[in-house]
């Protein structure tokens, strides 16, 4: 079994943050995990990509062009990944515009919203457990200002 | 043909300096003759920023490149845009010699006390005690004062000055003076204290405060 | 101390580490004393990481100073290293070439990025020629090319040992992708190694007079011949390559580094489709496992050799040069300077080739 997850967004949207959490959760469950971020020259802005692979066997190479799961969190990112095939599961921020508005989710928490959806899917596939991811999320963001908001977003999405 | 996919960070000092340079060139009607050389560091992001001839060079090598260009095309107005690392670390030797030879180029040094593009490492102008990824316990060296040091090698007629991105009037005055110095055939260098909220990890207010704090250590004015 | 770096210091069996962290751990375990360096992507994290674990280091004014400081440390008998890439690698060849002449155990970690010039900050396999034959000498240096995290660690340790044992400068030639990749690093799977100790090259109990310039051409020629003799003497022992599924082959793929890892997966897929292809993966580029490669041609009737690399032929040039002149081989190439190469690309190429 090998799962290839490609997360794409703008630098600053927290793509690498959620990538690290997913990876660490998978690592803790003794999966083989490979993760490589890809960004441009500049320190801020630009597209931020995360290539994640979770497998029961040793992973040979960290990059791929055929993701199983694809997350697109910005216009810039959508343009950047247009040459990548779409996966089995595709999450595009434009398809969730209404839901995000209804649930009053702030732009800075979009990554947590999608983390929730991703984790829900990964749990269904018996890859991760949402409680374990939650623990890591709390460790990482528990002391930040909008923790209560992020907490509730994650919990709602993983219901 | 490459697109400029990379942009300056929000809150960067470079766009301010660049736009002031452009304004000054417009005022003096010198845009057509201006040539802008860029060091490799955040300065490189300016490669298609202004409506003047611009090219990237290598880290620490922009001064000798513009020296070569100016000597080959004497009626051009040559600018070397470089950060504190490119000017005072890897490029220091070439900078000293350009000043010593009184090369008629204008060096603009954006001093934000860190290596911005690679993540904020220690630079020659990093303050004593400042924490960076390569000075985790705080920098143990004193910061370098570039214009002050060059004063010992320049000839009469050269122009050395320091200003800041939040001193627009002085910035324009010094850039204009530098250009006039070049036109008179002498070396000029303007160090511009600049901010880098990305690597300073400061919010709007703190960024300005930190910049103003730098003025106590790096004196503004003509040297 | 940064959290993840603290973890490297502990002897936990399984950790989730970046290539940078693995390199730092290897240098630590090799008992390196000091790192000199200058920040350049994609090796910045090695310098900042090392500076965070309480070991001796200095960020110098440029790579030239860093390289010569390493030479100084090594002359005084300390295990020193540096890390750089691209334009920084070019500058390091100045000091590295002095190390080549004076037989100094200089160790450098190079994270290949796109070139020439500033290229990209990301990845390539375009610094092979520079690593193997840079400087103004004959290329008597050791060059290691890891294909995964395990080799990244082991070959870094090996580089220190071989450099100090045989007195040749060494390059751990990796790339921006492998350095940035975070993967599961299992201590239990790592080959146990004993460190070769450092020793003072400039002794404290007597006097040496040590040039790197000679008055007469003959003196230099003699010196280089001595070096060549020593290099040849250790070549069989030090050179390493992997011959993977190379029994009864008609096609041979040659690739190194992470492209070697990809080629290995491609060979597995192709073998399942009954295409008789194997992989020759050089692990040391200098010295090159010449005999092992030549043997493959003796034992098999190879129709075509496909050299795959993220450059326009830097590996291919070495392969052709090393291959015994009497061996008649047909070469084809997959060459993508600065771009990663996927399994599918190699598989499709081989399928077309076979037809």
Automatic annotation (TrEMBL), chain A:
Pyruvate/ketoisovalerate oxidoreductase catalytic domain sequence ranges: 11-82
Species for this entry: Candidatus Magasanikbacteria bacterium GW2011_GWC2_34_16
UniProt entry tagged with the keyword Oxidoreductase: yes
InterPro entries in UniProt: 2-oxoglutarate_synth_KorC (IPR052554), Pyrv/ketoisovalerate_OxRed_cat (IPR019752), Pyrv_flavodox_OxRed_cen (IPR002869)
SUPFAM superfamilies in the record: Pyruvate-ferredoxin oxidoreductase, PFOR, domain III
Protein name (database record): 2-oxoacid:acceptor oxidoreductase, gamma subunit, pyruvate/2-ketoisovalerate
GO molecular function terms attached to this record: oxidoreductase activity, acting on the aldehyde or oxo group of donors
Gene3D superfamilies cross-referenced by the UniProt entry: Pyruvate-ferredoxin oxidoreductase, PFOR, domain III
UniProt cross-references to Pfam families, sorted A to Z: POR
Oxidoreductase keyword on record: yes
Entry keywords, A to Z: Oxidoreductase, Pyruvate
Automatic annotation (TrEMBL), chain B:
Gene Ontology BP term (one): cellular respiration
Keyword Oxidoreductase applies: yes
InterPro entries: 2-oxoacid:Fd_oxidoreductase, THDP-binding, TPP_enzyme_TPP-bd
GO molecular function: oxidoreductase activity, acting on the aldehyde or oxo group of donors, iron-sulfur protein as acceptor; thiamine pyrophosphate binding
Listed SUPFAM superfamilies: Thiamin diphosphate-binding fold (THDP-binding)
Domain Thiamine pyrophosphate enzyme TPP-binding as annotated: residue spans: 49-192
Keywords from the named record: Oxidoreductase
Gene3D superfamilies hit by this protein: 3.40.50.970
Pfam families per UniProt: TPP_enzyme_C
PANTHER family: 2-OXOGLUTARATE OXIDOREDUCTASE SUBUNIT KORB-RELATED, SUBUNIT OF PYRUVATE:FLAVODOXIN OXIDOREDUCTASE
Protein's name in the database: 2-oxoglutarate synthase
């Amino acid at each position: 079994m090998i799962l290839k997850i490609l997360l794409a967004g703008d630098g600053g949207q927290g793509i690498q943050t959620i990538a690290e959490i997913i990876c660490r959760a998978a690592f803790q469950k003794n999966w083989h995990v490979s993760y490589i971020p890809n960004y441009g020259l500049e320190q801020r802005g630009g597209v931020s990509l995360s290539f994640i692979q979770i497998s029961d066997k040793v992973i040979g190479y960290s990059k791929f062009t055929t993701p199983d799961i694809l997350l697109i969190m910005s216009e810039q990112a959508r343009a950047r990944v247009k040459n990548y095939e779409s996966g089995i599961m595709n999450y595009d921020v434009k398809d969730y515009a209404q839901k995000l508005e209804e649930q009053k989710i702030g732009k800075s928490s979009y990554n947590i919203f999608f983390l929730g959806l991703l984790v829900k899917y990964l749990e269904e596939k018996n890859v991760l457990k949402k409680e374990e991811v939650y623990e890591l999320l709390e460790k990482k963001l528990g002391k930040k200002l909008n923790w209560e908001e992020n907490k509730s977003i994650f919990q709602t999405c993983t219901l | 043909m490459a697109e400029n996919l990379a942009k300056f960070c929000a809150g960067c000092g470079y766009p301010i300096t660049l736009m002031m340079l452009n304004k000054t060139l417009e005022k003096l009607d010198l845009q057509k003759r201006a040539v802008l050389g860029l060091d490799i560091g955040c300065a490189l992001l300016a490669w298609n920023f202004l409506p003047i001839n611009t090219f990237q060079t290598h880290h620490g090598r922009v001064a000798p490149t513009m020296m070569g260009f100016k000597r080959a095309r004497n009626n051009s107005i040559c600018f070397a845009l470089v950060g504190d690392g490119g000017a005072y670390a890897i490029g220091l030797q070439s900078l000293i010699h350009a000043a010593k030879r009184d090369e008629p180029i204008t060096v603009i040094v954006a001093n934000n006390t860190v290596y911005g593009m690679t993540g904020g490492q220690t630079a020659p102008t990093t303050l004593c005690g400042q924490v960076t990824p390569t000075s985790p316990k705080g920098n143990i060296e004193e910061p370098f004062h570039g214009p002050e040091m060059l004063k010992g090698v320049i000839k009469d007629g050269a122009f050395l000055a320091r200003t800041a991105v939040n001193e627009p009037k002085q910035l324009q005055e010094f850039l204009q003076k530098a250009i006039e110095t070049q036109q008179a055939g002498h070396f000029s260098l303007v160090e511009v204290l600049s901010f880098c909220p990305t690597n300073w990890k400061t919010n709007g207010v703190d960024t300005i405060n930190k910049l103003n704090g730098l003025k106590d250590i790096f004196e503004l004015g003509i040297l | 101390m940064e959290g993840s770096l603290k973890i490297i210091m502990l002897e936990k069996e399984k950790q989730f580490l970046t290539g940078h962290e693995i390199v730092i751990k290897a240098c630590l375990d090799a008992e390196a004393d000091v790192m000199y360096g200058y920040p350049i992507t994609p090796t910045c994290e090695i310098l900042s990481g090392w500076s965070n674990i309480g070991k001796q280091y200095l960020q110098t004014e440029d790579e030239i100073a860093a390289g010569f400081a390493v030479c100084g440390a090594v002359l005084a008998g300390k295990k020193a290293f540096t890390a750089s890439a691209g334009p920084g690698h070019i500058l390091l060849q100045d000091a590295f070439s002095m190390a080549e002449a004076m037989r100094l155990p200089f160790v450098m970690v190079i994270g290949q990025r796109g070139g020439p010039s500033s290229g990209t900050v990301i990845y390539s396999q375009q610094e092979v020629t520079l690593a193997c034959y840079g400087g103004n000498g004959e290329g008597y240096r050791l060059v290691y090319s890891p294909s995964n995290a395990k080799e990244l660690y082991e070959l870094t340790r090996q580089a220190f040992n071989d450099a100090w044992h045989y007195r040749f400068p060494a390059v751990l030639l990796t790339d921006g992708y492998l350095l940035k990749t975070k993967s599961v690093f299992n201590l239990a799977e790592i080959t146990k190694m004993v460190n070769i100790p450092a020793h003072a090259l400039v002794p404290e109990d007597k006097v040496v007079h040590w040039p790197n310039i000679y008055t007469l051409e003959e003196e230099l020629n003699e010196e280089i011949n001595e070096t060549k003799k020593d290099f040849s003497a250790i070549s069989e022992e030090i050179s390493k390559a992997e011959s993977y599924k190379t029994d009864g082959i008609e096609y041979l793929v040659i690739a190194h580094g992470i492209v070697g890892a990809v080629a290995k997966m491609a060979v597995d897929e192709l073998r399942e489709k009954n295409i008789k292809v194997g992989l020759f993966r050089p692990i040391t580029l200098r010295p090159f496992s010449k005999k092992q490669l030549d043997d493959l041609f003796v034992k098999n009737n190879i129709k075509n050799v496909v050299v795959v690399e993220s450059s326009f032929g830097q590996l291919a040039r070495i392969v052709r040069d090393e291959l015994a002149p009497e061996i008649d081989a047909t070469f084809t190439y997959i060459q993508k300077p600065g771009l990663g190469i996927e399994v599918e690309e190699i598989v499709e190429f081989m399928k077309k080739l076979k037809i």
